[in-house]
Every structure is written in structure tokens, then in C-alpha cells.
Amino acid sequence: MHSMKGMQTAASMHGEYKVPGGKLVVIDLNVRDGRLANVRLSGDFFLEPDSALQTINATLEDQPSDIGEMALTLALHKALGPDVLMYGISPEAVTVAVHRALHEGGTT
Amino acid sequence: MMPSDWRDHDWQLIHTSPQDPALHMALDDVLTHEVGAGHRSPTLRIWEWASSAVVIGRFQSLRNEVDMAAAQRHGIEVVRRISGGGAMFIEPGNTITYSLYAPKSLVHGMSFQQAYAYLDTWVLEALGELGIKAWYQPLNDITSEGGKIAGAAQVHRGNAVLHHVTMAYDIDANKMLDVLRIGREKLSDKGTLSAAKRVDPLRSQTGLPREDVITQMIATFKRLHGLTDSELGNDELRRAEALAKERFSSVQWLTDVP
User: Fold this and answer.
1) Residue of B nearest to A57 (CA)
2) Among B84, B155, B255, beta carbon nearest to A44
3) CATH number reported for the structural domain that contains residue A42 in this entry
């Protein structure tokens, strides 16, 4: 098997959202003390610059797990700003995937 | 920026002997930069593969997309590319892959959706000349009545846009499904759960050898847009080889999205 030693904590909650007419948006995360932890976004979307992936992960990290969808979407919009190019993905879609991870997703 | 037309540019063709997957990733990086910096004329590069590979998109989770044990069992190299999009399963002779390194002016003012379709108009025409009725299916697929033919991806760097496409010529669907993990959510709006059935390769549709399909594509591009035979510069190749070794072969890059 390929070594995955770089990951200290395997994320235990998993949410997927296929954006209608768009791409697949995947969130893996943990919840620790009522907050999102080890949040990782992945998928077959297009995002430029590619550093925006880390911006999204960092914005989601430590958010309260009971945060409203609108508040989370707004936080993502604000963090990404107007210059990030997104195709097949949107802050709204990321929020849906987070919500699914929190409310539907177990270990995959 | 002034919009430009295909014919405003002196298009160059690069079609070399087979190269390793990591070098292909690096060549896309280097040549996009070179066109963006104005050091190289806009270029069409046709890839030849030296080995089998799975090429995953920039933001795909390695673990979610690839069964690494199966890849090793089949002797398939797994690499991550610089563009977004989905995983590609490559065996030499089974795909036709090409890259366009175009000036941004060519797609100036277009939406992403328009730019994808615009940069592949010549391919749809070439397929038509081969008797295949194909069209663009947003966001980034070329499809036909029989099923999907190809997937495209774009990256913007400086004044250049990289547009690269992998077309299925022939496919060992069982091996592909052994190596790629294809989730149900992804297929939820595709109308079928069978990933193998989603792809209808060029071989069965044209009955032609792969080389003949490529020859037709080059001829169509040349007729529509003009095209001059070209080669990789020594410096371009040297830089790509260094980048292939330091970045695109590294575990760190491959597992950047674990």
C-alpha cells in the first residue's frame, strides 16, 4: 500500500456533492470540541490560483460545527475575494459538502 | 488586452517520441510559461506515452480516486497534473492526448464554458471529417451519440492559457475500473452507473488506426489555423526534466491532496 504517513489524523466524516451542471466537491473533516478540524476539500473542479484550495481549507478549519449555511458561504466568499477563478465549484457547493459531511457522512 | 484570432498566431506543432508521465506534466508547466512569457509561439503538442499512467486532477484526493495497490500491481504510474478536472487512465496507444499553449487573447472576453468549446472547435471538425458527430458537453467533455470521447482541462498562467485534452482511442475498461475509484455521487447526473459505458472510444467509432486519427487532427488544425513543425528547445527540455524530477515525481506533490 502507498504510505499515507503524512496524515496525522484520518478525517472521519465525509461529504460529497455533485454540483448540478458542475463538478464533484468532496469534504473530509473531523469535529473536535464542537469545531471543524482537519478539513480537506477535494474534487474534480477547477480552481485558480491553486493556493485557493488551502484558503478554503483554512477558512473552514475551526468554524463551529453548528454554523449556519449562509454564514459559512459568506465566510468563504470573503476569504476567496473576487480574483479567484472557480469553474464547477462555488462557495455554496462547498457549504453543501460540509453540511453533508456533518449530517450524513460517516467513515467511507 | 486586444482579442486575437487563431490566424493572428504562428502555431507550432510538437510531436515527439514517447515520454514519461512526469515529464509530460512538467512540459505542460514549462511550455505554458514559455508561451505566456512570449518566448515561444503558440503551440499544439501531441503527447506520446512511454508507459501506462493514471493522471489525477490538481485537486483530487489521491486516496479517494486511486487504488494504489492495484496501480502497482498493473505497473501503472500515478501522477498529479497542474490542471483541475478528473482522473485519466492512460495506456500507450489507448489515448490521444494533446495540449494547446495559447495566448489568453485568443479567448479574451469568453466565459470558461465558451473558451473550452472554442479551443476544441478544430477537434470537433476533425472528428466530423472522420465520420463522428461529436459536440461539447459543458463543462469540459467532448461527447458523441455513443458516449463520452474526451475530457478537457484549462489552466491560466500569465498571458497564456493551457488547454489539454485526453481522448479515449481504445480502453481496457476492466483495468480502468480496477485502478480508479469511481464514486456514485459523481455519476449521479450521468444517467448510468457504469463508468465503462460512459466512454465510447475513437477506435470503435472510426475503425482507423490511432496514427491515422492523429494525422487527420493535425491536417484539420493546419487547414483551419496554420501549423508549422517545431521541436522542443534544449533549454525547455532541460527545465522540464528538472521539474519532472524535483516536483512531478515527488511523493509530496502526488499526496498534496491526500
Assistant:
1) B257
2) B84
3) 3.30.390.50
Instruction: For B90, list phi and psi in degrees, rounded to 5.
Output: -120, 130
Q: Which CATH number fits domain B6-253: 3.40.50.2300, 3.30.450.40, 1.10.10.10, 3.30.930.10?
A: 3.30.930.10
pLDDT tens figures, B7-44: 999 999 999 999 999 999 999 999 999 999 999 999 99
Task: Report the alpha-carbon distance of residue A18 to residue A27 in Å, rounded.
Answer: 12
- By the CB < 8 Å criterion, does B73 face chain A? no
> Please, which residues 138-167 of chain B have a Cβ atom closer than 8 Å to chain A?
138-140, 153-156
Task: Return the closest-CA partner of residue B198 out of B177, B219, B218, B220.
Answer: B177
Q: How far is A47 from chain B (nearest CA, A)?
A: 7
Q: Does B185 touch chain A (CB under 8 A)?
A: yes
Residue B61: closest C-alpha in chain A: A42
Structural domain includes residue A9: no
List of chain B residues with pLDDT < 70: 183-199
Residue recorded with cell 496501480 = B71
- pLDDT tens sequence across B61-93: 999 999 999 999 999 999 999 999 999 999 999
Q: Distance between CA atoms of B161 and A48, rounded to whole angstroms?
A: 12
Whether A50 and B82 lie within 8 Å, measured CB to CB: yes
Contact B205, B211 (CB under 8 A): no
The complex's ipTM?
Answer: 0.93
Range of the domain at A89: 14-103
For residue A12, give the 3-state DSSP assignment: coil
